[in-house]
Amino acid sequence: LFQFIYSVCLNKVCFPPAEWCYRKQNRDDSCKDPSRWAVQFPRCGGLRQSPINIITQKVQVERSLPLFDFFGHTETVNITVKNKGHSAHFILPQSVSLAGGGLSGHYRAAQFHFHWGGSGRPGSEHTIDGERFPMELHIVHIKEPYDSLAEAEHDTAGIALLAFLFEETADDHPHLDTIIAALGRVPNNGSSTVILDFRLRDIIPAARDLHSYYRYVGSMTTPGCEQAVAWTVFHTMLSISSQQLSAIVEQCRFWTGQPMRDLYRPTQPLDGRVVYSSKSATAQKRANHVWLGALSVLLCCCLKMLIKGLHKNFTVK
Ligand SMILES: [Zn+2]
């Protein structure tokens, strides 16, 4: 009998792990919010944690950081969406993968998910110069030949995480409605659905258009906070309208039954790490200004020619 009780206890029936959460969600306060994650998941208290605040003045420009090679992004696939209790995961097939981007080896995609805020509140995990953005997309890739996070966690670059920040725009993102509708079909912890004919390229740009990004070494942003992640935060932002944002925050519930909102971990100390950038953010801004300048000169010239033409027509008559 003792042996039976002991084995049952080993299977954590006697000591169920206290669940973690983003905010104090239970009335009895039994779930662990981010300030207490490290109590149960010691790695969450480590020195290479994510997300971080990226200070653009302090990033080290590393022009040798090359473009990525994306595979399977234009393929049409059916993907499963699962409400995992803390967020919703969009499971990607292994035919979606990446190489390059200054990473050694080949990485197979596992899933993507989003972090968002509440109605009118931003909810990205990474912040840039202290600014939090409306939403953040994470695409999780596991290095070959590892098959799971458990296998990859002993390699400091066992996981490649691609992050895209969203900016609020007047127009809808043309392909986010499929995502929003799918979230509406997985309202509760454990529920799942399928998206037919999904293409990752519809959500994110082609690799050739993603030359500017930040790179640093960090961790998963949920427990167990495994410190095995090569992070890529792209400078290019994805668009989302305010209507789409408010639809997203309405769709799902956490495992506690509370509305799934504000699902982001607070930023973590850099602890001496360096954030690299494939291009300087200020150079990028300057380039945009040059383009805008050239465009306005061109428009001015066209306008002048048009006025001249009209004037000629009138004087001939
Ligand atoms: Zn994430």
UniProtKB/TrEMBL annotation:
PROSITE patterns: ALPHA_CA_1 (PS00162), ALPHA_CA_2 (PS51144). It comes from the Eukaryota. GO terms for molecular function: carbonate dehydratase activity; zinc ion binding. Residues 18-279 form the Alpha-carbonic anhydrase domain. SMART domains: Carb_anhydrase. Gene3D superfamilies: Alpha carbonic anhydrase (3.10.200.10). It catalyses: hydrogencarbonate + H(+) = CO2 + H2O. Transmembrane segments: none annotated. SUPFAM superfamilies: Carbonic anhydrase (SSF51069). Pfam families: Carb_anhydrase. Its cofactor is Zn(2+). The keyword Metal-binding applies. Keywords: Glycoprotein, Lyase, Metal-binding, Signal, Zinc. Its EC number is 4.2.1.1. GO terms for cellular component: plasma membrane. Belongs to the alpha-carbonic anhydrase family. PANTHER family: CARBONIC ANHYDRASE (PTHR18952:SF202). Reversible hydration of carbon dioxide. This is Carbonic anhydrase.
